Amino acid sequence: MRDALLEQIHREMASDSSIFFVSADFGSPVLDRIRADHPTKFVNVGIAEQNLINVSAGLALEGYKVFAYAIAPFITMRCFEQIRVSLALLSEVRPMNVNLIGVGAGYSYVVSGPTHQCYEDITLMRALPNFQVMSPADHITAELLFGRCVGELGPKYLRLDAQVLPAIYTDAAPNIADGFHVHRQEGAICMIATGYMLHTAVTVAERLQANGVRIGLIDLFDLARFSTEKLREELSRYETVVSMEEGFAGRGGLDALLYNFISHNAIDVKLLNIGVEGSYRFELGTRAELHEQVGIGPEVVTRRILDLFKSSQGTFKTIKGDRS
Predict the structure, then answer these.
(1) With the CA atoms of 1, 231, 188 and 126 taken in that order, what torsion angle do they form, in degrees rounded to the nearest 10?
(2) Could you give the CA distance from residue 316 to residue 314 in angstroms, rounded to a whole number?
(3) What are the tens digits of pLDDT across the range 11-64?
(4) What percent of the chain is predicted at pLDDT more than 70?
(5) Which of 83, 97, 187, 243 has the greatest count of CB atoms below 10 A from its CB?
(6) Euclidean distance between CA atoms 25 and 37, whole angstroms
(7) 3-class DSSP state for residue 107?
(8) Pairing outcome for strands 180-184 and 216-220
(9) Is pLDDT above 80 for 312?
(10) Residue 321: what are its φ and ψ, rounded to 5°?
């Protein structure tokens, strides 16, 4: 996902001299090529994320399209005041294009522990007016989001996974303009997932289907500018919506976004929020093991939705003439 986006940036820099890349001492093989091929449009500010934001803001005020690159918790939390003042506030009065690339969303850096893992970034970045927040689930979506980054003014945050993930969109690409993509439209329950959790949701949907339960599935990759009319129409088909995020439950992330959206649009639907339960964890293990421990793995999510379905069986309304 990271390399797919960086490849896009590298190719575009060959024809667009207004693109500038700034890194906080964070690298990759593709980034090495960017630095080698465009030495005057690349700056490594060192392990100094506050400077990363201020340098990026200054370049943007000079007319550059800036991509700023660091590990997700560091590019969002270590320099939050600079993001607020130099990007969110300043972009309201001055045109600028700054794209923060945070690599390592959720449990991506699984062996590095909670200092390098990132459960809070959706909450923090959604709190800032004027910011776009994008959370792709695969490299295909990340590549498509590049067009928005380079073509639209304003500060943006792209949260990318640090691990190599299988492609989700192998048949049809998502409609970036809508901000979400409907993978399944059936049953009385619908899962809405973002980022890595879309992969979990696909697994859960297959397991539920094996148990005779059909379920809807939506990938919400744009957490700020999705089509409200189209999402309202989709959610109105269901009795229950299940939010799935690789972040703390009930702490202002995807679940808060959906609670607010459902309430403001008076949608007759219940919401079950699935996210990281409890506090920070210091246990070592695989990503799959940690997910089960904190309540967001396929096993525990499948059980919760099966329990929800069994307890509500007979009360769900018919969806498009079909009852799961």
Answers:
(1) 60
(2) 6
(3) 999 999 999 999 998 778 899 999 999 999 999 999 999 999 999 999 999 999
(4) 96
(5) 83
(6) 18
(7) coil
(8) antiparallel
(9) no
(10) 75, 10
Asked if residue 314 has pLDDT above 70, the reply is no
74 phi/psi in degrees, rounded to 5: -80, -35
Q: State yes or no: pLDDT of 324 exceeds 70.
A: no
Can you tell me which residue has the tokens 């679940």? 255
- Contact between residue 103 and residue 76 where contact means Cβ atoms under 8 Å apart: no
d(C-alpha 307, C-alpha 198), whole Å? 21
pLDDT of residue 270: 96
CB 134 within 8 A of CB 222: yes
CB count within 10 Å of CB 263 equals 10
Q: What is the pLDDT of residues 253-306, one digit of tens each?
A: 999 999 999 999 999 999 999 999 878 989 889 999 999 999 999 999 999 999
Burial class of 3 by CB neighbour count within 10 A (0 to 12, 13 to 18, 19+): middle
Which of 7, 12, 50, 60 is closest to 29 using CA atoms?
Answer: 7
pLDDT at 313 over 80: no
**CA–CA separation, 136 vs 211, rounded Å?**
29
DSSP states along 82-106: HIIIIIIIGGGTS--EEEEEEE--B
Rounded distance between C-alpha atoms, residue 277 and residue 296, angstroms: 8
pLDDT at position 320 over 90: no
| pTM for this predicted structure | 0.93
> In the structure encoding, which two tokens stand for residue 162, read together?
């640090």
How do strand 132-134 and strand 180-184 relate by DSSP bridges?
unpaired
Query: Which of 118, 124, 158 is closest to 253 using CA atoms?
Result: 124
The C-alpha atoms of residue 192 and residue 250 are separated, in whole angstroms, by 15
